[in-house]
Amino acid sequence: MNTDIEKVKVLIIGSGPAGYTAAIYAARAGLNPILYTGGQPGGQLTITTDVENYPGYPNGIMGPEMMEDFRKQAERFGTKVRYGLVTKVDFNSTPHKVIVDEQVEIHAETVLISTGASAKWLGLESEERLNGRGVSACAVCDGFFFKGQDVAIVGAGDTACEEASYLANICSKVYMIVRKDEMRASQIMQKRVMNNPKIEILWNTETQEILGEDEVTGARLINNVTKDVSEIKVSGFFVAIGHEPNTGIFREFINMDESGYIKTIPGSTKTNVEGVFACGDAQDHIYRQAVTAAGTGCMAALDAERYLASLE
């Protein structure tokens, strides 16, 4: 390991709307933040095509381009953006110790965690190839593009039901693909989808392949009981089988819920460790939108600024 230890006031772990917004606020406050981008610079928005629901972009913007704008704005105010992956942390004492790429050691007075969450996928080659071309893990983000069209959604939890209902409001028909003969969603959510005439639930069904060359044209399905194979024609295919927060390296020190989302003190971004704050999808399993992530990034920077002021 590199023996040189770098001392910083504000270290931001992870990019994306939360991390970059935190960086903008911290930099403008004269805190000279350093931001490490993580393994996916720009976060989930870099695998999103059109973003039409973020304020300030009346004509929409491509996800990667939007994240580039965020990065440039953070750098304009003095943020040092570095490409690297935090591989280990030690929050037992202050300043907090953070290891990057297993070789750089940083001692930070405050740490802002904005490592986000990753959507769980089915693991199909066609799913990866058509991601952003009809395949999406966010109905609220991308459903609008399939207005008046037939779509499919995979999942059986509350989120899947909620997104199926959302899609039914704007799409002609929604096929809901459920692996078992029952859902794990709450009864009220199950009733909502079962009573919706635009939603057809395909029980005991799994996806063999998503069809289409350059964009989604349908899906090949198999019934787990009868083994019958069938095809449906859809132009949108949504995966709603959950998200995995990228918070594993903090587990030893930071309080989390059973799914790994970081617990913050209500009304703030404070964690159980003084001087460590969490923002964005690493601590938000409810809204998961770029604009809400950016909002909590702002909160984290302000919380960090106030914490540092209290030490003086």
TrEMBL record:
- Enzyme class comes to oxidoreductase
Q: Which reaction does it catalyse?
A: [thioredoxin]-dithiol + NADP(+) = [thioredoxin]-disulfide + NADPH + H(+)
As cofactor, the record names: FAD
**Signal peptide interval:** none
SUPFAM superfamilies reported for this sequence: FAD/NAD(P)-binding domain (SSF51905)
Superkingdom of origin: Bacteria
Coiled-coil intervals: none
One Pfam family from the UniProt entry? Pyr_redox_2
| Alphabetically ordered keywords of this record | FAD, Flavoprotein, Oxidoreductase, Redox-active center
Chain ranges of the FAD/NAD(P)-binding domain: 9-297
* Record-listed E.C. numbers: 1.8.1.9
Q: How does it assemble?
A: Homodimer.
The similarity annotation says: Belongs to the class-II pyridine nucleotide-disulfide oxidoreductase family.
Specify the protein name: Thioredoxin reductase
